[in-house]
Automatic annotation (TrEMBL):
The keyword Transmembrane helix does not apply. Keywords: Hydrolase, Protease, Serine protease. GO terms for molecular function: serine-type endopeptidase activity. This is Periplasmic pH-dependent serine endoprotease DegQ. Belongs to the peptidase S1C family. The keyword Protease applies. The gene is degQ. Residues 281-347 form the PDZ domain.
Length: 392
């Protein structure tokens, strides 16, 4: 009996082993699909027949296609007056040798970029691109070169508006860019910078918005820059900074660089400021800003402690122009300006922006602190005189 049981056990073991080998190596003998093959096929089918679309690298071709025709190259030339010899300043020398001979001096040229903002030929660019230019030529994306004139400029924001002159009196129908909204712009958004860097031709670079509201840079009088890491180089000035939909959100203006090339820190004037300046220039030829005649300084921690202030917000009035709007409104040196027309003043730069944004001739409420006492006063806003700005 024991012997029969051993024979039975060995026979079952051998049969199971044979079945395993056959099902693994020759499953078709049993009428089954391969075990591992089934798993592989199933995985392949699940990978190809899934609901999720395949991953595709993002492209901004549509944004570039929309904005590129509206960005132009600007070429300027300036005639340099030849310096005459100092001897011609001597009357006796001129008596014997006559006046200095007239002649054309050498000319200098510059290049930059601009953005078409209306179909009838208005172009927005930087003031420093066209500053002191005797002749301006605009190269369109379709290959045409047309002359342009300066409609008006605003050195304090470094903006200028040109108007393209039609050739042979022909009517212009140009591709105007779509203006974006700064309310929709946040840090981290993708941006495209379009311009003519180093004169190599129309170029698109991509980056993100690195920061908003950059100021205290010493670039312009009024600063509220968009910072981007999209490559901006010489020749990009006045070009477009657009969002991922191709809408204009800024005018490329400056870079931070020690070598002259892009280091990933570029600055653009926000479209909110550019639009306001542009509309005023087109309507009146100039930009009008408010003014009250004060000199302000920043409130440091030490000043706040010495004045017994709760914080460093506001602007310390260091001087008041005698007979100016602030003087007439009762503002005195030593006062701390806290708000203009209900809007808080954070620092002297913010104060300048708020006052400049007021309409000359209007009477506006100012909130101040004097000897730790808050009070309000009404000031009639004056008109800020246009200022020229020298650039390095």
């Amino acid at each position: 009996m024991r012997r029969l049981w051993l024979i039975f056990a060995q026979t079952v073991t051998f049969g199971v082993a044979v079945l395993f080998v056959v099902s693994t190596l020759k499953p078709e003998w049993l009428g089954k699909a391969p075990v591992f093959g089934t798993s592989i096929v199933a995985l392949q089918e699940s990978a190809t027949a899934g609901d999720a679309p395949p991953l595709v690298a993002p492209s901004y071709r549509q944004a570039a296609k929309k904005a590129l025709p509206s960005v132009v190259h600007i070429f300027t030339s300036q005639k340099i007056t030849a310096r005459r010899h100092p001897l011609f300043d001597d009357p006796a020398f001129r008596h014997f040798f006559g006046e200095a001979p007239e002649g054309d001096g050498p000319s200098s040229s510059g290049l930059g970029s601009g953005v078409i903002v209306s179909a009838n030929g208005y172009v927005l660019t930087n003031y420093h691109v066209v500053e002191a230019a005797d002749q301006i030529e605009v190269a369109l994306s379709d290959g045409r070169n047309l002359n342009a004139r300066i409609v008006g400029s605003d050195p304090e924001s470094d903006l200028a508006v040109l108007q393209i002159t039609p050739a042979n009196g022909q009517a212009l129908v140009l591709p105007a860019i779509t203006l974006g909204q700064m309310d929709d712009v946040v840090v981290g958004d993708v941006t495209l910078a379009i311009g003519n860097p180093f004169g190599v031709g129309q170029t698109v670079t991509m980056g993100i918005i690195s920061a908003l509201g950059r100021s205290h840079l010493g670039i312009n009088t009024f600063e509220n820059f968009i910072q981007t890491d999209a490559a901006i180089n010489p020749g990009n000035s006045g070009g477009a900074l657009v969002d991922s939909r191709g809408n204009l959100i800024g005018i490329n203006t400056a870079i931070y660089s020690r070598s002259g090339g892009s280091l990933g820190i570029g600055f653009a004037i926000p479209i909110s400021i550019a639009r306001s300046v542009m509309e005023q220039i087109i309507e009146t030829g100039t930009v009008t800003r408010g003014w009250i005649g004060v000199e302000a300084q920043e409130i440091t921690v030490d000043l706040a402690e010495s004045f017994g202030l709760p914080d460093t917000r506001g602007a310390l009035i260091a001087g008041v122009l005698r007979g100016g709007p602030a003087d007439a409104g009762g503002i005195k040196p030593g006062d701390i300006l806290l708000a203009v027309a209900g809007r808080a003043v954070e620092d002297p730069h913010g104060m300048l922006d708020l006052i400049a944004g007021q309409k000359p001739g209007e009477t506006v409420r100012f909130q101040l602190r004097r000897q730790n006492k808050l009070f309000d006063t009404m000031v009639k806003i004056g008109k800020r005189a246009p200022q020229s700005r020298e650039r390095e």
